[in-house]
Structure formats: C-alpha cells, structure tokens
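Question (not urgent): is this output format expected?
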Amino acid sequence: MVLNISSLLSGEKNRLDIDYMLSVATEDVGNSVNLSGVTFPTPARVTGVITDNAGYMRLKLSVTLPYVTVCARCACDVSGEFEINFERTVVPEGMVDDAEEKEEDFVVVENGMLDIDEQLTEVLMLDFPTRILCKEDCKGLCQKCGKDLNEGQCNCPTKEINPAFAKLLQMFDEE
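Got this back:
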C-alpha cells in the first residue's frame, strides 16, 4: 500500500493511523526461506501509526500473518498467526545516501508518498520460522514404525545395536 503522508509533512497532522491488509503470496515468503507446505490463507493485517514529533517522524507497525502448514516433527496440521513488529524512521527522499542504511533503519518518502510493502514482505521472509511445531513439546513420530508418539508409546525397541557389533553380541548370548 502506498500511503499519502503529505498532511504529516505539511504539519497539518502529527499522527496518521494505519490499518490495511497486505497480500502475501506463498512464493514471496515460503520459497525465500525454503518452506514447503506453508500457505497463507488470508492477507496479513498491518496496523500501526506514523507520528511526527517536531519534524522527527517514526513509523511503528504490527503485522499479523495467518499460516497453515504441518508440524515439523509429527506431520499433523498446524495453523496459527505469525506476528512481527516493524519500526523505522521516516525520512524525505535524498536524506539518506547509503543504500544499506536506508533499507535497515529508514523508510523513504517520495513525493509525499510512502511505500512500505516491499520492506514488510522482506522482514516477513527473514523472520518467518523455518520449523513450526504443533506444540512446544511435540514428541514426533517413531523412526521405525511411524506412530505419532504424542498419542502414546509404540512397541519398537528403544535401544539399537550397531550392526558392526551384532556378531560379538551373538557370541556372548551363546555362552
């Protein structure tokens, strides 16, 4: 979304509330951080404010992105909301020369307009978790039989014998 902040720049207002939906494609976030199976069923909700305090403008946003995926341990369906906070200093075009500094600390106003969607999408890409669990203490699946260990233990042996020592164990069993 491109925000018209000319009323802040002219001094008519000292606060501009923001509330809009940001469309985020799975390809934008998921492929950038190698997330397969993650979908974003609805757009991200962006809320916040731009304040002007004697010429010093600050942008503060909260972004909530709903997602649907599978647990990284037990493969059950997981849905939730990923939330980030985004804060930047708002500066007029030409005030910041270093491109890297410009991207990390500032958002630039061009002709009274402020476009923040690209930076928000980039922050979502970088901060989105690479592993999502159904619950913090998920036990996962049994490596042998595939049973969901959250539902109870399976009958698979818990200790495995290294095949290199199987003959030696067999000799001890014979004696």
